[in-house]
Design goal:
The structure holds three protein chains of three kinds.
Chain A: H1 2-14, H2 17-24, H3 28-32, H4 36-66, H5 83-119, H6 127-134, H7 139-165, H8 186-193, H9 197-230, H10 238-250, H11 253-264, H12 269-276, H13 290-317, H14 322-330, H15 335-363, H16 367-373, H17 390-400, H18 404-428, H19 430-433
Helix pairs in contact in A: 2-5, 4-5, 5-7, 7-18, 9-13, 9-15, 10-13, 11-16, 13-16, 17-18
Chain B: H1 2-37, H2 58-65, H3 72-103, H4 109-119, H5 128-138, H6 144-154, H7 160-167, H8 172-179, H9 184-195, H10 197-213, H11 216-221, H12 230-235, H13 242-268, H14 273-277
Helix pairs in contact in B: 1-13, 2-13, 3-6, 3-7, 3-10, 8-9, 10-13
Chain C: H1 2-24, E1 51-55, H2 58-62, H3 65-76, E2 83-86, H4 95-98, E3 107-111, H5 112-117, H6 140-145, E4 147-150, E5 153-156, E6 159-165, E7 167-171, H7 179-182, H8 197-210, E8 215-217, H9 224-233, H10 240-243, E9 245-249, H11 256-268, H12 278-288, E10 292-297, H13 302-315, H14 320-330, E11 331-334, E12 339-340, E13 352-353, E14 357-366, H15 373-383, H16 386-396, E15 399-400, H17 403-409, H18 411-422, E16 425-427, H19 438-451, H20 464-483
Parallel strand pairs in C: 1-2, 1-3, 8-10, 14-16
Antiparallel strand pairs in C: 3-14, 4-5, 6-14, 6-15, 7-10, 7-11, 12-13
Helix pairs in contact in C: 9-11, 9-19, 11-19, 11-20, 12-13, 13-14, 16-17, 17-18
The chains are: A mainly alpha, B mainly alpha, C alpha/beta.
Chain lengths: 439, 278, 486
């Protein structure tokens, strides 16, 4: 760190006035070094960013701190401040500042390189050369620029927004046009002190972890098994057999859930068959049906997810190096040995991220129990039922009951727990540490 | 030798038994939905057990002609538009992202991998409010391509699956090509892209079906009935319209099944065995 | 300037309120109009050449009433160039969410609890209702549902269109043939099961015993909207202080447990389908195919029942016209039977009390985000005129909130109107906390319904005390849901 600072100070001391010009006006130095296009580009970006800040960015940053000062009243015709929008656009402005800083540093580095080249008596790079570099050495910059921007605006920005909501009093009666305020950590202290909260939280967390682990294992092995089965040589008409799971895959998930809910309802066909053969109707998803409902959820989720895992596994299986299998066969390895020694390690390696993705997806699987068994509060749970996952509980709290700030605080807590958990697994996984095993 | 053959027959028999069972498990609910959509009476409660007692095409006719309140053809077209648009964009972005993350080493790579991993853990609907507010600021409510934009922007987050695939393609060919003076772009388009057909098809299929069945986002962003997607439209059906619901859900599956039959060959036989060994 | 006028008005009004209180005491339902004001934006100058978006409910659109309405309006206001169009949005949209960003409708038709939810954030305009032609014709109880007190001043934020409350639907042709001798003890020529729940219960048991696939009265009990009426009949209520005080939850108040007991007895005459929402979705076809004799639901779905009945008759071989005529004759909507004061449905010759039901008043409101408030007001005035209300009733079978239109429509509409005036329809609370009652309430009613099908030794609710305790528990749950996190 110290070394770096020293080097930086050194650069500053030795920099020419052209470089210093770039520190004030982005692109100025590059222009003077004869790199007109690049200089102009930097200059134009700076102008654009500045215009943005003059037109609205500055006000947005201010709004981020105040969250509005004038309360709107449509009846009197006063157009007030919308705190939520102000916060959102404030975050957006922060992101723009971040981009500006990155560009600014890039600009300085770039012009510093120019100075060095000039000192060494070498020619300045041509604009066209630099462009073509973007398709070769810096290919990754070109490629990743668009996805990174997209993710920043549509994923990170909303998440930051939600995290910040946890530190406000947004929700309940405090929704626009009311003004929202920053309240610091009071939502979190509320969570800790509330007596109803902790038991429900831990009960749901326990079930949620069990659910995520069980459904991931079930889906993964069922999907992989199906793919292997269909991959066997003795199976004729593979496309035909594969079409059945695909059919299930083609029907949108929520429709499947609505259909299954109906099947298991008191008036559904299963109960119709039971009652017409003399039995009494069973509340598969009813109020008392804790474990039946959980099991049905597990199986229905399996029905929905297996086809896509099967498809994926099929794709991966076709990517195996078949020469290894030939060699194994010549060495007299049984099919089971081949599976254990060749297929499974390969599949585990290449699908580890999928497995993790599945785990996360199942952990946050909102639809299953919302559609199958929504609208119930069970004894011993605070505003939740015994099949609800944390995400369903969050929904009850924040959407049904309007406590956005509390919901955001809880989701932040859950988020921290789950991300630490999954990150530590992920960092240890071979597909993260030894990416080039099969390359 | 004989024993071996007997074992093989047993194995084959067992395999087919399991396949038949699996086919039944997956097909039965679908069949139920399909037959329900052809039931003569609109109500599901007039069925004997699982299946309707009489059949007709009336529901499908109603689905496509009675469009005053429930304009199914329009919904279908909207969905197709959104799904196709986001399929092309998402596949493009995801494949490129995955390839880059698999083949290039740069300073931000590992942090980026961790960040995307963690971002996926965030309960998505919590950030829906923010997405909605953002879209109102950009004026993208009631715009179909606003949805495409969001789907495409979120898609690269799921690059891990595709990266896992690229990780299994040997890097030796790349090295050889590099020595021959090929640029990274050329290596990608000329060598790796043809090898990655299965994963491209998989990505395209998933990014096509995701908007096809998504409910929350279109519900949030498409306010006018004329812009509804099938998922939103079907959920807005009146409670007595089960047959129409079933018909709508069956018909919505048709493009995906067709797509599958067109693409299945590419997905399964995509790897040319010779290229890998080289 | 406007602000100052408003302040002045507010001061004057609060003074009027103070003096008003002294004389009349608490019972001043007559007064809500006094001191109400519309927003100053309603200056009476019609905007010209504008298009206003109107959100109607789906049934009105599907049955073709809405097309007629906007066609008539557009013709009447052609001189001003005002055009009303279908907003083409979800009938349950949330104005608070869409309006501020410019994506909501200009005029909206929703239930009173939904519209009044918007008042807190001032998403709908207070209306100068005295200017409307329908003002005198709509009863105070209905106006009350749209009146909000803000800073001591009352505002009316919606115009009542029709009354919604649980009604008994039954099939005349399914009455036993000998009902005049066997089921008309008091000889008033009205079948007894339509007069008292005791007889309905007895009839249900009998009908089911005769043919195990048939039932008498059927209803999904999980629907709090309909089930809570039984609690109200015995003194229960949702929020205290005339449904305005969320800190007082009275589901267990009075003898409400007797109402719960009645429900559990009725469940005993049904089957398990009453536990979840099965009956709510199957009632149309099951009433039509004769499996059920009667059910309770709101008047606005009358046409759905009718359509199903017509289909069923056509299947029996009648022509379309005959089937329609027969369906209209046999499908009857009437007021709810009376309850025994003791809550015991097996009692003979019980002392009877009126059955109350939860109800709502659907009406029009004007979005505070509209650019053309005066044109919107003109539309609301037009849509609530006598002719339109009568037409609405003819198209949809709903009960008009206007006295003259209700009289013209006669029959059920008039009964419903009278029920509203007599207080047998308990209007849904108009405060936002009402959103928190549904899930806890639903869970309780599901449990209650399930109890009827549990084996004897596992039953939870065997006496009135246990029911009372359960109701207390639900009330507490609702209280917690509202206040814990505030």
């Amino acid at each position: 760190m110290k070394e770096k600072g020293k080097r930086f100070a050194d650069c500053v001391r030795r920099s020419s006035w052209k470089v210093r010009l770039s520190a004030v006006v982005m692109g100025g130095g590059q222009f003077l070094y004869g790199r007109y296009f690049k200089g102009l580009l930097y200059f134009l970006t700076e102008i654009m960013i500045l215009t943005y800040f003059i037109l609205r960015g500055g006000a947005d940053i201010a709004g981020f701190f105040t969250l509005g000062t004038v309360k709107g009243d449509a009846w009197l015709g006063t157009k007030g401040d919308n705190s939520v929008i102000m916060m959102l656009m404030g975050i957006f402005a922060w992101i723009v500042i971040g981009v500006w800083i990155i560009l600014y540093i890039a600009n300085l580095k770039d012009v510093w390189r120019s100075q060095r080249l000039e000192e060494a008596g070498r020619p300045q790079p041509k604009f066209r050369e630099e462009l073509s570099q973007l398709l070769d050495r810096k290919f990754y910059v070109t490629v990743l620029a668009l996805p990174v921007i997209g993710v920043c605006v549509f994923n990170i920005l909303p998440i930051v927004f939600m995290i910040l909501i946890a530190f406000t009093n947004y929700g309940g009666t405090v929704v626009p046009p009311e003004l929202v305020d920053w309240v610091g950590f009071s939502n979190f202290s509320k969570l800790v002190t509330l007596s109803q909260f902790a038991p429900t939280f831990f009960r749901i967390l326990g079930w949620n972890l069990l659910w995520a682990a069980a459904s991931t294992a079930l889906n993964y092995f069922a999907g992989l098994g199906l793919a292997l089965l269909l991959n066997k040589d003795c199976v004729k008409g593979k496309a035909f057999w594969r079409a059945f799971p695909i059919l299930a895959y083609a029907i949108p998930g929520f429709i499947t859930l609505v259909a299954f809910k109906f099947m298991f309802s008191y008036g559904g066909p299963i109960n119709q068959i039971i009652t017409s053969s003399g039995g009494t109707a069973i509340g598969f998803l009813g109020l008392d049906a804790k474990w039946t409902a959980r099991l049905i959820g597990l199986l229905v989720n399996c029905w929905i997810s297996v086809p896509s895992i099967m498809l994926l596994a099929t794709g991966y299986l076709s990517n195996r190096d078949m020469s290894l299998y030939e060699a194994a066969r010549i060495d007299g390895a049984s099919p089971f040995q081949q599976f254990r020694k060749l297929t499974l390690p390969f599949m585990l390696f290449s699908t580890m991220p999928v497995l993790l993705g599945q785990f996360i997806g199942n952990f946050n699987n909102f639809g299953i129990f919302y559609f199958l068994r929504g609208g119930l509060y069970v004894d011993g749970y605070f505003l939740a039922s015994d099949t609800d996952l944390l995400i369903n509980w969050l929904y009850n709290l924040s959407i049904d009951n309007n406590y956005y700030c509390i919901g955001a605080a809880i989701s932040l807590v859950i988020f921290l727990i789950t991300s630490v958990l999954s990150l530590s697994v992920y960092v240890k996984s071979p597909s993260y540490r030894e990416e080039d095993t099969y390359q | 030798m004989k024993k071996f053959r007997f074992g093989k027959i047993l194995d084959t028999g067992l395999t087919y038994c399991i396949l038949i069972a699996v086919a039944f498990i997956f097909f039965f609910p679908c069949l139920w939905l399909i037959l329900a959509s052809f039931s003569a009476s609109g109500s599901i409660y007039s069925f004997d057990g699982f299946f309707p007692s009489s059949f007709s095409f009336a529901t499908f006719e109603k689905l496509f002609t009675d469009t005053a309140l429930y304009n199914y053809p329009k919904w279908f077209f909207n969905t197709l538009y959104i799904a196709a648009g986001s399929c092309v964009l998402s596949t493009f972005l995801t494949i490129l992202t995955a390839y880059t993350m698999s083949r290039f080493t740069f300073r931000m790579r590992k942090p980026m991998m961790k960040i995307t991993m963690v971002l996926g853990m965030f309960p998505s609907f919590m950030s829906m409010t923010a997405v909605y507010l953002l879209m109102t600021q950009f004026g993208l409510i009631n715009q179909r391509w606003g949805l495409i934009l969001i789907y495409a922007a979120g898609a690269p987050m799921g690059y891990l699956t595709q990266k896992g695939f690229f990780d299994t393609i040997p890097g030796a060919i790349d090295e050889a090509a590099k020595i021959d003076g090929a640029t990274n772009l050329q290596i990608f388009t000329k060598i790796n892209l043809p090898l990655s057909k299965p994963i491209i098809v998989y990505t395209a299929l998933t990014s096509f079906t995701w908007p096809w069945s998504d409910f929350i986002l279109p519900k949030l962003l498409l306010k006018e009935r004329d812009f509804y997607t099938v998922a939103v439209g079907l959920m807005s059906l009146g409670e007595t319209e089960f047959a129409r619901f079933a018909a709508g859900s069956v018909f919505i599956a048709v493009p995906i099944v067709l797509l599958y039959f067109f693409l299945v060959k590419d997905m399964v036989n995509g790897m040319a065995a010779g290229a890998v060994k080289g | 300037m406007r602000k100052r006028i408003a302040l002045l008005m507010a001061a004057v009004c609060s003074l009027a309120m103070l003096t008003g209180c002294g004389g009349e005491g608490g019972n001043d339902t007559q007064e809500p109009q006094q001191g109400t004001t519309g927003s100053p934006v309603f200056n009476g100058e019609l905007e010209r050449n504008v298009t206003i978006q109107v959100l109607e409910n789906d049934t009105a659109i599907a049955q073709g009433y809405f097309d007629e309405l906007i066609a008539a309006f557009n013709e009447a206001y052609a001189d001003y160039g005002i055009t009303a169009v279908d907003a083409n949005m979800d009938q349950y949209l949330d104005l608070a969410n869409d309006g501020p960003y410019g994506y909501g409708p200009d005029v909206l038709y929703q239930a009173n609890d939904v519209i009044m939810k918007y008042v807190e954030g001032k998403h709908v305009y207070p209306l100068p209702v005295e200017q409307l032609e329908c003002y005198e014709q709509i009863p105070d109880a209905a106006w009350q549902a749209y009146t909000a007190e803000i800073d001591g001043k009352s505002y009316v934020c919606g115009v009542p269109v029709n009354v919604q409350a649980g009604m008994l639907y039954y099939r005349k042709d399914l009455l036993p043939e000998n009902w005049e001798t066997r089921w008309d003890d008091n000889g008033n020529n009205i079948p007894d099961m339509l007069e008292t729940w005791n007889d309905m219960y007895e009839f249900s048991l009998e009908r089911h015993a005769e043919n195990p696939s048939q039932y008498g009265y059927m209803k999904s009990l999980d629907d709090m909207y309909f089930s809570s009426g039984f609690l109200f009949s015995y003194g229960g209520y949702i929020f205290g202080d005339n449904n305005t005080d969320p800190s007082d939850i009275g589901l267990a108040a009075g003898d409400a447990e007797k109402g719960a007991w009645v429900l559990s007895q009725l469940a005993g005459a049904m089957n398990e389908e009453c536990i979840d929402d099965t009956v709510t979705t199957s009632q149309y076809s099951k009433l039509a195919d004769g499996s059920y004799f009667a059910t309770i639901t709101t008047p606005d779905v009358y046409t759905t029942f009718l359509d199903e009945m017509v289909l069923a008759y056509e299947k029996e071989g009648l022509t379309e016209e005959e089937a329609e005529e027969k369906a209209k004759e046999n499908l009857v909507m009437t007021t709810l039977p009376k309850l025994p004061e003791s809550g015991d449905l097996t009692e003979t010759n019980p002392k009877l009390i009126d059955t109350k039901s939860m109800g709502g008043i659907n009406g029009y409101a004007i979005s505070a985000y509209t650019k053309y408030p005066n044109a919107c007001l003109a539309f609301v005035d037009f849509a609530t005129s006598y002719e339109r209300m009568v037409e609405r009733n003819q198209f949809l079978g709903v009960a008009p909130a206007r006295e003259d239109a209700a009289k013209e429509a006669g029959g059920i509409s008039e009964l419903l109107y009278q029920n509203l005036e007599s207080g047998n329809i308990v209007l849904m609370p108009s405060i936002s906390q009402v959103g928190q009652i549904w899930t806890p309430g639903r869970t309780f009613f599901i449990d209650l319904a399930m109890d009827a099908f549990r084996p004897e030794n596992e039953k939870k609710y065997t006496d009135l005390e246990s029911l009372d305790a359960a109701l207390e528990k639900v009330s507490k749950e609702i209280y917690d849901a509202i206040f814990t996190l505030q």
